[in-house]
Backbone:
């Protein structure tokens, strides 16, 4: 099978400081890859650099388009990169307030990307928005409410609807369940797993929660100090960690 | 051991090994754990394991606790990384050494060739039992209604009451969870099946159902490698035993 995203030797430096260093991986269509590691290990930097939100200091990101051609992100104009991010990719932020527009209604948040892609029929946009609110388990009767009136878990589900409404092929997620209650977290994980399967999405998800990685991702990368120290099958990494840092990470998890 | 089961096994074993094709070859397989945070301690759990498993046979690993039986299954499933030797699996007619395979290759082998049923069910908290069992069928390309229908039939056969199908198994009894787990593991027929005590918390009736299911899989040509501490169960399903011993501490 051919990859959807090919990352090679990717680095991003903040001045002298390493954000992420020399990271390579392939992502296949329909696959969910988790990036784990402690705070400051470079997970989010890697995610943002791979998603072309940060400019690489070195290395390359290539994306396999629907028509079969490979796009080199660095050679893309800023306008085309924005079009790609809007139409074929999605990005879910840890804090839903960063990914939502708080001053417009829930329905408008869901419909916005469709409008940006040229859909104009108001009735149709409203129907699609309602359908997506239902899909993420938000009462469609709240379509005209502002997201500020929603709980944190609802806001996160709204952000997921807003991101997935255009049926992107590739989604980047930065700790989408961090900071939520455990019961809310389970609901969002179940939702993400279902949508990823139904829509055949590929996704890269940053998490510091190894249990999340085990439940959602077939493959995992472990980061420490900006570098990938171990990569492979999620269950193998968690049950038979090889690198000293991964062993420490796995043995530090509290079990209930 | 019942007389009929013994006869069936005794006849089946030589026939199977004489004519059936090998599905799994373990060659010089070894596993050691290096514990970096325990002063670099090294634990040797498997050394130089040689085993050939054929289509249509059920080999049961025997030996005391600590002999490495579960570890061996985990190494074959690529849940543990082998330290030495080869785990050769016949996948789509070709041989592939899982010790050398890429993660994507291993996932493909797990999807279509190699199944593993452990003692414990591990799933997302909110998913209903029926969907947990149907999931491997959906991944294999079946429609949701058809997958759910077949999942229901198998749960029914395993005596999981229909009122539980719509509920997540988190609150089920140990035996009910284990039957959901078995159903999920057996719903797609795979040429190679690894079983780690899948019947440990089941009563005699349900163990008997599992034995029938395994027998059917074996007769249909699957190669089965398992651990069963219950002697009745072992005698009923095994065509051959593979004895294992704890490694001597040097």
Residues:
């Amino acid at each position: 099978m051919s990859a959807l995203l090919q990352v090679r030797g990717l680095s991003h430096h903040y001045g002298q400081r390493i954000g992420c260093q020399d990271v390579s991986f392939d992502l296949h269509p329909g696959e969910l890859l988790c990036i784990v590691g402690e705070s400051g290990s470079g997970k989010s930097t890697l995610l943002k650099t791979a998603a072309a939100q940060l400019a690489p200091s070195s290395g390359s990101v290539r994306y396999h388009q629907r028509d079969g051609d490979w796009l080199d992100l660095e050679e893309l104009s800023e306008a085309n990169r924005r079009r790609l991010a809007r139409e074929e990719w999605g990005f879910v932020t840890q804090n839903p307030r960063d990914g939502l527009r708080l001053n417009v209604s829930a329905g408008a948040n869901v419909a916005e990307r469709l409008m940006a892609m040229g859909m104009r029929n108001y009735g149709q946009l409203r129907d699609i928005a309602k359908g997506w609110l239902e899909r993420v388990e938000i009462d469609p009767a709240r379509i005209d409410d502002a997201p500020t009136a929603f709980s944190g878990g609802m806001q996160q589900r709204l952000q997921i609807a807003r991101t997935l409404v255009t049926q992107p092929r590739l989604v980047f997620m930065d700790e989408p369940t961090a900071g939520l209650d455990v019961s809310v977290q389970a609901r969002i994980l179940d939702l993400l797993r279902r949508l990823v399967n139904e829509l055949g999405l590929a996704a890269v998800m940053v998490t510091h929660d190894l249990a999340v990685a085990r439940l959602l991702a077939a493959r995992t990368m472990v980061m420490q100090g900006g570098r990938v120290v171990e990569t492979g099958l999620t269950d193998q990494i968690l049950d038979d960690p090889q690198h000293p840092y991964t062993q420490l990470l796995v043995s530090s998890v509290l079990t209930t | 051991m019942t007389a009929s089961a013994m006869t069936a096994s005794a006849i089946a074993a030589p026939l199977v090994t004489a004519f059936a094709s090998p599905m799994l070859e373990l060659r010089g397989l070894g596993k050691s754990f290096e514990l970096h945070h325990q002063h670099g301690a090294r634990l040797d759990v498997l050394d130089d394991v040689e085993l050939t498993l054929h289509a249509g046979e059920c080999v049961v690993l025997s030996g005391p606790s600590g002999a490495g039986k579960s570890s061996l299954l985990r190494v074959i499933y690529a849940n543990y990384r082998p330290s030495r030797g080869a785990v050769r699996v016949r996948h789509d007619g070709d041989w592939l050494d899982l010790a050398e395979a890429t993660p994507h290759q291993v996932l493909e082998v797990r999807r279509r060739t190699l199944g593993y049923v452990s003692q414990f069910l591990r799933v997302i908290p909110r998913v209903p039992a029926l969907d947990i069992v149907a999931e491997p069928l959906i991944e294999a390309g079946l429609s949701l209604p058809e997958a759910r229908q077949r999942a229901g039939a198998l749960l029914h056969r395993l005596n999981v009451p229909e009122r539980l199908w719509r509920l997540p198994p988190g609150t089920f009894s140990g035996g009910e969870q284990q039957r959901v787990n078995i159903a999920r593991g057996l719903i797609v027929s795979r040429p190679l099946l690894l079983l780690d005590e899948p019947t440990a918390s089941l009563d005699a009736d349900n163990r008997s159902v599992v034995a029938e299911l395994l027998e059917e899989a074996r007769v249909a040509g699957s190669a089965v490698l398992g651990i069963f501490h219950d002697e009745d169960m072992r005698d009923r399903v095994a065509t051959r035993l593979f004895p294992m011993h704890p490694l001597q501490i040097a």
Notes: Helices of chain B lie at 3-19, 69-76, 103-112, 129-139, 144-157, 174-186, 204-219, 231-237. Chain B is about 40% helix and 25% strand. Confidence is low (pLDDT under 50) at residues 1-8 of chain B.
